[in-house]
Amino acid sequence: MHTTRPRLVGARHWALAAIPLVAALVVACGSSSSNDETESRGTTTTTAPEDFEMQADDFVNLQDMTPIRGFFIDNQLGHLDEALAVANEPEGGGEYPVGTVIQLIPQEAMVKRGEGFAPEANNWEFFSLEVSAEGTRILSRGAADVVNQFGGNCVDCHSAARPEFDFVCEHDHGCAPLPIGDDVIRGVQQADPRPRAGA
């Protein structure tokens, strides 16, 4: 009996000594959990992917866009400098930023959409347009079913462009040539009837 009492006292002493240690572990785990939750919240809070759904009123007269080697370019999300850098890279500048608008003639356009919009078209949306002094009317839009002014499917034509040119056709990009000459195209461009900005 005498020998068990010191053992109980020792056990009680150990238990009392362990309380601060257990409390410290609980606090540490709690703060770690809190930090994990904060980090977790930080990593799971994401912004929506960038995208731009072009409306008829967003289209402008070609002369209010930036001319590049015979076509016109703009960016509706403020990424014009990045778009121009891609367009001006002679060996192919990679992918155009979301919101990029490219037009060869007033009646057609291609607009770069967000990731996942149309992988088969490298996320380009194609437009067939009617233009007048009143502005622009969208006749058809999409990735797979839009037909160009020459009767061809837009995706079929543009998918022939080499990958480094991101579906943009020019004379040396791998696309089939257009059935009209550059002089005719320039005449159509200059005849864009839509009002100029600030007019």
Question: Top keywords for this entry?
Answer:
6-stranded antiparallel sheet; globular; alpha+beta; single chain; 2 domains; disordered N terminus; 199 residues; 4 helices
Shape, per Cα inertia axes: globular
Domain unit count: 2
Distance between the termini: 107 Å
Low-confidence stretches: 1-16, 18-40
Binned, the helix content reads 25-40%
What is the tally of helical segments?
Answer: 4
Q: What Rg do the Cα atoms give?
A: 31 Å
Arrangement of strands in the largest sheet: 1-2-3-4-5-6
If you average the pLDDT, what whole number results? 83
Number of strands: 6
Helix-strand topology string: HEEHEEEEHH
Structural class: alpha+beta
Describe the main β-sheet briefly.
6 strands, antiparallel
Approximate strand percentage: 15-25%
Secondary-structure map with pairings?
Elements: H1 4-44, E1 66-68, E2 71-75, H2 80-87, E3 100-103, E4 108-112, E5 124-132, E6 135-142, H3 154-158, H4 182-190
